[in-house]
Amino acid sequence: MFGFNMFHEISRPFNMTYRCFSVSMLPGNERQDVERGGKIIMPPSALEQLTRLSIEYPMIFKLTNKKTKRITHCGVLEFVADEGKVYLPHWMMANLVLEEGALLQIESVSLPVATFSKFQPLSEDFLDITNPKAVLENCLRNFSCLTTGDVIAIKYNSKVYELCVLETKPGNAVIIIECDMNVEFAPPVGYKEEEHIPRSADGNSGQSMDEDPAVMMPEPSGFVAFSGEGNRLDGKKKKLTSESESESQNTQARQSYVRGIPDYDFVIGTLRFIRNSRPPSAKEEAPAEPFQAFKGEGFTLRTAKSKN
């Protein structure tokens, strides 16, 4: 006689086709939590069918647009959609090149746990975030998986930042739930490294000027002590040894330049530009290395457990 356990239960994958819509088409209140993550909303009948199948948890699905052959992966947030419909985040529909009401194939899959990922911001505005690690770690809590080539959207301070997933390891699609994942950032699209010019303590760039500020000071008016010149006994004029000595005699009678004191003898119609004449130091004379905003090693991002 044949035993009752002769035939083992064979696990069958979940494979269905639904009409897809963006979250903005979902009836009821606006669901911003769906737009901020990488999970979809499926109908209740999908949950009933999944419970009858031997599906591994967490539930990960492969989304395929048969017309464009575009593929991505996602998790599920709720089973409250209308029958025959699924609701996706807007960025996910853009990756799959889907229109409202288009057919979408959904298949259950099993993915490896992530160990590495690399992101590239699509805007230089991402550089304004002071702590991108904390922002990314908080936003990825709403994601179940990542797919190489996808452009995900994260929201921070009422602003949406788009990041392209350049690379994932150990595969092109990975699970990011309860894992320690090394993360690196590539320079944003259109970003150009600017040369970093060192500045001195007074805020100047350290470049010296040829003209002495004392030369531009106004000549003193009224009585000036010892303003005359010496004469030789033989009646000949004194010879100057160098040009610098002559310049020093011309500027000796002028007022010394003091920064911050206005020129009270200013004459309307004249403009004087006084610049820093301090010679550059040895450190400033050395060529500066180009500024690299994304220079250095990556960091480890630790994701938390998902609800679904």
From TrEMBL:
Residue span, Ubiquitin fusion degradation protein UFD1 N-terminal subdomain domain: 14-112, 114-188
An example Gene Ontology CC term for this record: VCP-NPL4-UFD1 AAA ATPase complex
Keyword line: Ubl conjugation pathway
Cross-referenced InterPro entries: Ufd1-like (IPR004854), UFD1_N1 (IPR055417), UFD1_N2 (IPR055418)
Listed Pfam families: UFD1_N1, UFD1_N2
Location of the region described as Disordered in the Swiss-Prot/TrEMBL record: 195-214, 226-256, 278-308
Organism superkingdom: Eukaryota
GO biological process assignments: ERAD pathway; ubiquitin-dependent protein catabolic process
PANTHER family attached to this UniProt entry: UBIQUITIN FUSION DEGRADATON PROTEIN 1, UBIQUITIN RECOGNITION FACTOR IN ER-ASSOCIATED DEGRADATION PROTEIN 1
Family recorded in the similarity comment: Belongs to the UFD1 family.
Entry protein name: Ubiquitin fusion degradation protein 1 homolog
Organism: Parnassius apollo
